[in-house]
Write a structure and sequence with these properties.
2 domains; Arc Repressor Mutant, subunit A; mainly alpha
Length: 180
C-alpha cells in the first residue's frame, strides 16, 4: 500500500474513531451500562484514537522527509554538474589540457602545487583539502577521502579561498596553474 493511501486510510480511521468515541460518550451506542464499563470503553477508544493519530503523524513525516531528500539530491546533482562545467571550461582555457594528464609525474605536479600555495598559510588539513580540490574532487568526495563531514569540507574550502584570495574553484585552479 502506498504511503499516500495509508495516510488517507489513517485519516479516515481517525475521524471514525472520534465519531465512535463521541457517540459512545453520549450513550447513543450500546445499552445502559455501569460506570466501569463506560470508563473501559472510553479508554479503549481513546487508546485506539491515539495510536491511529501517531501512525498518521509518522506517515506524514516520512512523506515530507522523502520529499526533502529528493530535493536535496537534485540540488547536489545540479551543484556537481555546475562544478564539472567549470572544470571543463577551465581546462579549455588552459589550452585543452586536462589537469589529470598534465605533463610530468605525480611528484612534479605535487611539487608545483606546493610552490603555488606557498605563503598562503594553509593548515595541514586545509593543504590536504586544497590538494584534492585541485585534483577536481567534489566536496562530497573530499569528505569521503578524508573521513570528514561535507560541511567541514565546505568550511575548509571557504578558509582556503579566503587565504588564497579567490572566489571559486575556477579561480583557485587558475591561481595554482599560474603559480601566482
Amino acid at each position: 500500500m502506498g504511503k499516500q493511501a495509508l495516510r488517507w486510510l489513517l485519516g479516515v480511521g481517525y475521524v471514525i474513531l472520534v465519531t465512535l468515541l463521541l457517540l459512545y460518550q453520549m450513550g447513543v451506542m450500546g445499552e445502559k451500562r455501569n460506570s466501569a464499563v463506560s470508563v473501559l470503553g472510553t479508554l479503549f477508544l481513546g487508546i485506539a484514537l491515539a495510536v491511529v493519530l501517531v501512525l498518521y503523524i509518522r506517515v506524514t513525516d516520512q512523506m515530507k522527509g522523502q520529499g526533502q531528500t529528493a530535493n536535496r539530491q537534485a540540488a547536489d546533482q545540479q551543484t556537481e554538474n555546475r562544478q564539472a562545467a567549470d572544470y571543463q571550461a577551465k581546462d579549455e582555457i588552459a589550452g585543452g589540457q586536462d589537469y589529470h594528464q598534465e605533463s610530468g609525474n605525480y611528484e612534479e605536479i605535487y611539487a608545483d602545487f606546493l610552490k603555488a600555495i606557498q605563503g598562503c598559510a594553509l593548515s595541514e588539513r586545509e593543504l590536504e583539502v586544497a590538494w584534492l580540490l585541485y585534483r577536481g574532487y567534489t566536496n562530497r568526495q573530499i569528505g569521503e577521502e578524508l573521513y570528514i563531514a561535507e560541511t567541514t569540507v565546505k568550511k575548509h574550502v571557504s578558509h582556503i579561498y579566503q587565504k588564497m584570495e579567490v572566489y571559486s574553484r575556477k579561480d583557485f585552479r587558475a591561481k595554482i596553474w599560474t603559480g601566482k
